Amino acid sequence: MATEDKNRATAAAILPLVGGAANVSSIAHCMTRLRLGLHDRSLVDDDALKALPAVMGVVDDDTYQIVLGPGTVARVTPEFEQLVEEVRASAAPVVHASEELAAQGAAIKAQQKTKNATPFKLFLRKIANIFVPLIPALIGCGIIAGLNGLLVNLGWLTSVTPALAAMASGFMALIAVFVGYNTAKEFGGTPILGGAVAAIIVFPGVANIDAFGQTLSPGQGGVLGALGAAVLAVYVEKWCRRWVPEALDVLVTPTLTVLISGLVTIFGLMYVAGEVSTAIGTFADWLLSTGGAGAGFLLGGFFLPLVMLGLHQALIPIHTTLIEQQGYTVLLPILAMAGAGQVGAAAAVYLRLPRNESIRRTIKSALPAGLLGVGEPLIYGVSLPLGRPFITACVGGAFGGGFVGLFNQLGDSVGSTAIGPSGWALFPLLDGNHGLGSTLAIYAGGLAVGYVAGFVATYFFGFSKALLTEFNVSQETVPSTVAATGGRPTTDPGTAPGAPAKEPAGV
Q: Can you say how many angstroms the Cα of residue 254 is from the centroid of all Cα atoms in its chain?
């Protein structure tokens, strides 16, 4: 089957299982997930969705998220959007039914979102929405930068390397503009005005301006300054919309927005954000150079729980700031060890539950994605429903993070030139201060330690006798309606027959 036909077929299989085109209110995607806004959550068939070959798992958060994996989701989403449009165009108008459906679904959705709608988590979600669309460019430019560095070190293709350097550096030189554009869009302003104000930060002419007794430098404050400048621009713009007469709005509002926000950015935000950015880089270097092993152990061990709570989103601007300053983020390779612990734990679960065909089948299909850094299928389909193996997976991540952190402490910095990938997929993006060979070896060693530690911790400590008795059973001995929960028998007093395990919010 052609790739286009396969993606179209996947979209066509998903649509009826989420309640059809009339039930879909919004469509978007991130690195691995198709994110759908739904009018009525009760119309979704979770079990049937999970059974689709292309679906790695589902997550019910403020949007309904279907895990398809990197690459696949970017191809299926446009097919899904087109299919929804075609179905709506061919359907007879049902205005009153749609409105009734929307009202019914709104109450259900509001109830489901209450626990996750804390101001802090909503703010972090906005931050993630600003930076996640930038990840494909960061990855592409990061890989080109790595290729260029390799060619320069080898002395090959010297006539081509300047062009590669321009390709790799162009986006990073203007990343503040993209951050400003996305920030204004996310906070409800005019995106182009956010980009215009943020562009001041990277304009070479700021080198002629003095602020706080210092001469400004282009790029000072970086993405943090751009974020702050664009948020300020949104508030100035909204104030203008309220007070400027409508006849003058088209002239006065954009002028005042750029003027006021621009002056505050030049004579305040650039300096403050520059100091904060410098402090972040200094702290990261100090943390890993003085307590690298311990810091790596804690970062690698607690990253999966941070993901489950949605707090990992706060690290995105920190990663981006480090990439701007140093060319790579030293935090990501350590945090990637959490995925290694998850892979080791899954392998141990596979051996400890030889009779549970459902879980073993899930592990076999999800393990390749896990090795490439896509951990959702293993987390939501294996370790989290089982409970203890999720904790032992964190132990594996801690030991892997401690290994990489130790080498940072000894002076071998290991970093990533982009954010997004992890696992084996991070190898093309690695960079450091002691040559590519040393950097690759340290990261590979950390993965190996994470695999082994996660496996050992899970094999020997991941199962109680009761847990083994409950789960190490043949699929034929339990009702098929509980296959989605990893083979949990319906006699389990803590779980209603056939009810799927509660899945926490993902990225």
A: 33
Say which residues have a Cβ less than 8 Å from residue 250's Cβ, sequence separation at least 6.
none
Residue 109 has pLDDT above 60, yes or no: no
Q: Which residues of 283-304 are buried (b: 16+ CB within 10 A; e: fewer)?
A: ebbebbeeebbebbbbbbbbbb
Is the CA virtual torsion 109, 114, 115, 121 positive or negative?
positive
What is each CA distance from 470 to 347, 355, 433, 467, in whole angstroms?
A: 19, 11, 50, 5
**Dihedral, 498, 501, 505, 507 alpha carbons, nearest 10:** -90
Distances (CA, A) of 24 to 27, 51, 231, 256, 486: 8, 21, 30, 39, 29
Sign of the four-CA dihedral 242, 248, 249, 253: negative
Contact 369, 346 (CB under 8 A): no
CA pair distance 317, 302, nearest whole angstrom: 19
Would you please indicate which residues are annotated as catalytic (active-site) residues?
30
Check residue 30 and give its pLDDT: 78
- Name the pLDDT band for 97 (thresholds 50, 70, 90): very low
Query: What is the phi/psi pair of residue 344, to 5°?
Result: -60, -40
Helices and strands, number each (H, E), in the chain: 21, 8
pTM (2 d.p.):
0.76
pLDDT tens digits, residue range 389-409? Answer: 999 999 999 999 999 999 999
Phi, psi of 256 (to 5 degrees): -65, -35
**Per-residue pLDDT at 380:** 79
Q: Is the CB of residue 137 less than 8 Å from the CB of residue 171?
A: yes
| Cβ pair 317, 227 in contact under 8 A | yes
Give pLDDT, residue 298. 95
Q: Give residue-wise pLDDT tens across range 251-294.
A: 999 999 999 999 999 999 999 999 999 999 999 989 998 888 99
Q: What is the SS3 assignment for 458?
A: helix
Burial of 71 (0-12, 13-18, 19+ CB in 10 A): exposed
Is the separation of the CB atoms in 60 and 35 below 8 Å?
no
